[in-house]
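step 4 of 6: structure.
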Amino acid sequence: MLCKRIIPCLDVNQGRVVKGIQFVNLIDAGDPVEVAKQYNKNHADEIVFLDITASHEGRDTILDVVNQTAKEIFIPLTVGGGIRTTEDIKKILRAGADKVAINSSAVKNPHLINEGAKQYGNQCIVVAIDAKRNTEKGSWDVYIHGGRLNTNKDAIAWAKEVQQRGAGEILLTSMDCDGTKNGYDIELTKKVSQAVGIPVIASGGAGTPQHFSDVLTEGYADAALAASLFHFGEIQILELKNYLKNEGITVRP
Amino acid sequence: MRIGIIDYGMGNLHSVVNALDFIGVSSFISNEPTRLLQADKLILPGVGAFCDAIKQLNDLELSSFIEESVHRKTPLLGICLGMQLLFETSYEYGQHEGLGLLKGDIVPFNVSLKIPHMGWNQLKINKKQPLFINLPEPAHVYFVHSYHLETSEDIVSATTQYEKEIQIAVQKDNIYGLQFHPEKSGEVGLEIIRNFTKL
């Protein structure tokens, strides 16, 4: 049986990990390569780097980070943030990433999904969707620019469209739940996951092992992503996996 | 010992080089038969569409080179699309003839689960020697594919379960094929690559 995946996400700014990370025995907790290695040791199934470098000049630093990481760990690596063109996709994949995550650019220029999938294969195009509940409409809107701009697109319809355009996977973040530690948005995740035939990675809201279990079963997510929870050592990935296994969920040991 | 990685313009070959570097085995990438002739072992990687791949192999005269290498008993490892290319026929976007070094077909998944079959799945090993020795139990490897092998030959060295049993590794004489990505399968994958380099 295919395993449910547990994915830590690292925010990287100009080549450095942003949030203060607490790892024991880590020489440099700001070095994304070191942190990725540590996660690999702790049984992470994949790693996501989110490049939040604002300046244009600083943007190539992520390529060095990816290049170094790809020489030291041998699990799938996804890179997102600031990807606007197929040339950007090419550079990141050439540096050694296995997948790219496109967010705002996919909304502004949906053809980028088609082009990226055609040139590099569906499997390496992940579309990241930031969704926020619209209580009036009783549905979820898609936001871009780090959650600052409402596109008024319906999240479920957009998920279907990105699949049609050739996305190989969806990284679905609930803006309502993100940072709350009150659990993933099960309803949103379930709706999106059942609307598409490609894997869905749930993101936003994880606080306890139970939350992971819920989103991977009731939410029909194929993978669950978390950031600070893992960074601050509140939950160890291996312990989380043991918990999930006891809950009857298939995970990679 | 040097491993020659066959470059026919499909996919990221550097991850294979990175993995070999990591385990201390030297390698080189080339699309020229004369250079690849100097390799002790060959790896045929690849991600992408079967029809483009076979056309590239033929255009670069790599198809005949691979066939000759197999006759010379040079160990050959096909990875992912590289494994599929070893077979007779693929039914990906039509019907295409492969290298035909092994008997079998590449067919689309006929399951109710999500396609591609993407992520970590468990190896069910039929033939432990020589690639699957020294692996933990259970051993998981990383897959990304929408088509899979179907063969009735006794060459299947491992399978995995994805609604039904899928044939995902083969070996015959000096020819080896893996549907999954050993270069993306953590320690288990590195061990499998190490086992190939030790042949």
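step 5 of 6: annotate
 - The radius of gyration of chain B is 15 Å.
 - The mean pLDDT of chain B is 95.
step 6 of 6: archive
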